[in-house]
Amino acid sequence: MAAPKKVGIGTVAFSNPPVILATATIVGAKEGEGPLANTFEKVVEDPYYGEESWEKAERRMLQEVLEKALAKANIKPQDVDYLLAGDLLNQIISANFVARALAIPYIGLYGACSTIYEGLALGAMLIDGGFAQYVLIGSSSHYSTAERQYRFPTEQGAQRPLTAQWTVTGAGAILLAASGAGPRVTHATIGRVIDLGSADPYNMGAAMAPAAANTIVSHLSDTQRRVEDYDLILTGDLGAYGTALLHKLMAEYGHDITRNHNDCGLLIFDRGKQDVHAGGSGCACAAVVTCGYLMQQFQQGKLKRALGVGTGALLSPLTTQQGESIPAVGHAVVLQA
Amino acid sequence: MAAPKKVGIGTVAFSNPPVILATATIVGAKEGEGPLANTFEKVVEDPYYGEESWEKAERRMLQEVLEKALAKANIKPQDVDYLLAGDLLNQIISANFVARALAIPYIGLYGACSTIYEGLALGAMLIDGGFAQYVLIGSSSHYSTAERQYRFPTEQGAQRPLTAQWTVTGAGAILLAASGAGPRVTHATIGRVIDLGSADPYNMGAAMAPAAANTIVSHLSDTQRRVEDYDLILTGDLGAYGTALLHKLMAEYGHDITRNHNDCGLLIFDRGKQDVHAGGSGCACAAVVTCGYLMQQFQQGKLKRALGVGTGALLSPLTTQQGESIPAVGHAVVLQA
């Protein structure tokens, strides 16, 4: 029984591919002015979202999308087997406090900006393994909470280099189920942590590109598939510089992904008009583009099979201060119409 | 196939209970002077462990136990399907950087001090679900890294109230396998996040006791077992005050656990002699006591069936500053000889 599910170390093919029953998205004002505006369900103009702090605003967004995904599928919190969630804040407080409100058995994850894909891969395993009927997955980020935690006090208005990316404000949620109608998760590839020595915290794309490449190459090798087998390969938040590096690295591995690759961090903002430097980033970047844009592409029949690759930079401000380079990870799932 | 594995929301009974093939432990000087000294494999006197920072010392400890657990079972990193790890430091940097060194497909977890049990529960699901043959699980903490991140600069020498607990320095690792000899993981109960309004970050035991009680009661109800069905119910790090509260709460639920309950945080230090106030805490507390003491009890035939309950307080310094109470979680697994 075990053997056919494993197609390589880190890669599994699901026996009964779990279904994405519903997704939900919410974003901030800047994301609502971007090219994907019409793929998001709700745009919140107030960065505080009526709360007393940015952190509480982020938390409210995460709770709202999780509840909305459940409501869309007419599933109650008490029917959900597990909540898998995480975010960028220290001690993943957005996820922890939302888990308190929902009272669903909770598995806290930390995969930095790859979290929604880490959750999707793991959730699909829990369902296909027979341990769950419904798994709820969510992730969030907020420009102002991330900025003050990872970089400078926001009041300081520090300049950022052009390789820096803009943390997406928003949250995305996915309700995964053992059966029903919707795109299916057919495979998952859990990534290894890769670090080629990039140490610039203002160029996360460069740090993450090798991890994305490693995961994609492992996935193709494990599944014996080619790049052309996917209508779209969608990475999480490599941005402009990371994307260029990924294309170059993949070419070195003998794969041309330039025709069918895109990146959530490039899709979500108009870099020419929105002053986001190298593009979007943050847990919400992959989450809202996957739960919004990607799902819409499936619903409209524009995609049949996509490889989504969440990317995460696994540093902390302290590791940078202690002179470390930046480890990164990429987790991939195959979504099929 | 799916149905018999689920015995309740959050609780699963494994079809082919995964085996703890090997464990490994390492602790700091204070732990090496405590009552469990002879259950630990290595005691490190130098809090820096020859490294340049406490964080790097903690990381080195985590890497060492993971490699040791593999070596004991004669398994190579490349044969391991997944590494599940996490710790208390922001962005779980101990786990992330060790994952970089081991190059095993990596699932980062955050469950605060419950992490080793979160990993054990999840690892058992991945193996029993057919997605892995070997899963490596690890967690670590360090008094000095935790103290300066969560409380005061260590140089300040701030006084702590008697309800405070002492973060254990050390790391524990578990190699879980689909087959072999060793205690088996027969059930897992993933906890809900519980918060009864306790807001004192110097009394984590009080915040976590209700979560532990909720998980134990759910577990007993889901499995239709009684307290007496376990030779030992071992909680992670409730300490003296949390343990007293747990006993009281369990009594209110109609269960007397006073005869067969113990707590890793009470076992690891001699509170009379070691000036640790309410007992031990931290990710390493449950990890080293489970991987050391508990495994030894099984090896010596003193235990046939134990319920281990990792407990985690899911706050951050920032949530306390923003006036929040403390959400907590407990994850349980059944270990059987």
TrEMBL record, chains A, B:
GO terms for molecular function: acyltransferase activity. InterPro entries: SpoVAD (IPR010894), SpoVAD_sf (IPR038369), Thiolase-like (IPR016039). It holds the Pfam family SpoVAD. SUPFAM superfamilies: Thiolase-like. It comes from the Bacteria. NCBIfam families: PRK08304.1 (NF006160), PRK12404.1 (NF009069), spore_V_AD (TIGR02845). This is Stage V sporulation protein AD. The lineage of its organism: Bacteria, Bacillati, Bacillota, Clostridia, Thermoanaerobacterales.
